[in-house]
Amino acid sequence: MEVLGETIDDAAGEAFDKTAKILGLPYPGGPLIDKYAAQGNPLAFTFAKPQVPDLNFSFSGVKTSVLYFLQKQIQQDPDFVQKNLQDLAASIQHTIIEVLIKKLKKAIQQTGIKHVCIAGGVSANKGLRAALDQLGEQLNISTYRPDFQYCVDNAGMIAMTGYYKYLAGEFADMSISPSARASW
Fold first, then answer.
1. What's the whole-model pTM score?
2. Total of domains in the chain
3. In this predicted structure, what is the pLDDT of residue 137?
């Protein structure tokens, strides 16, 4: 396996959850963004799309763009979010998915890969799933996505890994340090 690109700050799921929090939605907000987006116009509002080089990506600018936009709108109309929740959710979702699909398309073109899959909690997002399928048709590649029951958050995956390590008797003492970028 070769890492072609990675986030330089928040992952897509974190961007969904954090922008949902800005909208006043409870955690986890990603599924709520997805739910409200289904009834909204994805082109109603425009948010910043970061221009990160290569195949890496960033979502901090998206969050900041949403925050500043809403602060300005709420000054003019305190009920702005409630009045526009579906369109806001759809526009946020559209922005995040557009960033992901653009980078994925670039990776496909650079490598010539013909099979692509998504995983993790964000793979449950209906908009992302549809965009992946559309990209597959456009580029004539095979796309794979897990059934919804297997679209678990990374914390769930880490817990499951820990469970299997426990069953195998693989333990570590308290002197180890956690690493988000551990190599196997």
1. 0.83
2. 1
3. 97
